[in-house]
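Lab notebook page, bench 4
Experiment: in silico fold of construct C2
Operator: M.H.
Input chain length: 353 residues
Purpose: comparison with the prior construct
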Amino acid sequence: EVMQNGMSFGAPTALENELAELIIKNNRFVEKIRFTSSGTEAVMSAIRLARGYTGKDKIIKFEGCYHGHSDSLLVKAGSGLVTFGETSSAGVPEAFAKETIVIALNDKKALEAAFEQFQGEVAAVIIEGIPANNGLLIQEPEFISFLRATCTKNNALLIFDEVITGFRLGFEGAAEYYDVKPDIVTYGKIIGGGLPVGMYGASSEIMSKISPDGGVYQAGTLSGNPVAMAAGIAQLTELLRSGFYKELNNKALEFSESIQRYATAKNYKFKVFNVGSIFWFAFTDQEFIRTADAIDPLSMEKFKVMHRELLNRGIYLGPSGYEVGFVSSAHNKIDLEKAKRAIFEALDVVFKK
C-alpha cells in the first residue's frame, strides 16, 4: 500500500513523524532523532555531531567493538595501554586513524589514562551497548557506570552504538539494561523491520546542533523513506505488545541453558554466553569473557568443525566463531528443538576429534 503511493520523495513524510513519535514516546533516552539510511551512517553522523557539539576532535573507542565502516572507526589498537588507532582497512588515511584512540574494554585505568593523555581533546567515547561483534563481551554494570561518570567529568559525550542491542534487549536497549543515560544513541535496520534505515538520537540541546538549526550537516535522500518507515511502525508496534520481551527472553534463555546443560553433562569445554535474546558459543571454560584478547584464537578451529556439522544438519550460524546469534519471536518451539538437537550432535563430533 505504501509503495503504491511512492517509494521515495526526498522530502519528509507523515510516516517519519509517526515512527519518530513511536520511538520518542517509549524511549526516555532520546528527545529528538534523525533518520539515516543505515547503522553505519547513524554512527558516522553521531560522531560528527559529537565533534560539532563539543568543539573537540578525538574519539575513544574500544578494541573488539565494531561501529560500521566509516573511516574514523575502521581502526584497531596498536601496542600499549593507550594507543592511536591503526587503520584496519586499505583506503583509510593514517591521519583519520590518528583521531581515534583505541583502548581495551573493562579497563578503568586505560580509560583514565586516555583522558589524561589527551586532556581537553576528546569529543566522545563510543561503545556498543553490549559488545557483540567480536564475541559477546558482556560488560559489568560497574564499568559502564564508571564510563558514564568519566565522560561527564571530562566534558566528553558518551555514545551508545545500539545497532545490535537496540530494541533487542528491550525497547530501550542497553541503556535500559544498564540504567545508564548515553548522550547520543544510534540504531540500525531494526527500526525499519530489517529494511535499510538507521537513526541517531539525543537530547534536544545536543540535536539542536544539527542543520538547519545548527552547523552540523547531515542529510540523505532515502533517509526516512516511506517504505522503511511503514515497516518500522509495524515492527515497533509489535515490540510494544505486552509481554513481548518477557516471552522472547525466556525462550532464548531456555534455549541457551539447554545447550549449556548438555555440554556440562558431557564435560565439554564449551560455554554459552547469553543476554536477552542474544547468545554466543565459545569453546572455553572461562566463566566470563569481557575483552577481545581473552578469546582464544585456536578455539576457532573447533568452531569451524561445528559450523560444518550444523550446515550438514540444516542449521546455519554466522560463519565466524566471533559472531553472536539471536533467538527471534519468529522461532517456534519446533525450530528451536531442531536447532538444539543439531547442536548436540555437532558438539559430539567436535569433541570426538
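Observations: DSSP finds eleven helices and 13 strands in the chain. The domain at 244-352 is CATH 3.90.1150.10 (Aspartate Aminotransferase, domain 1).
Next step: discuss at group meeting.
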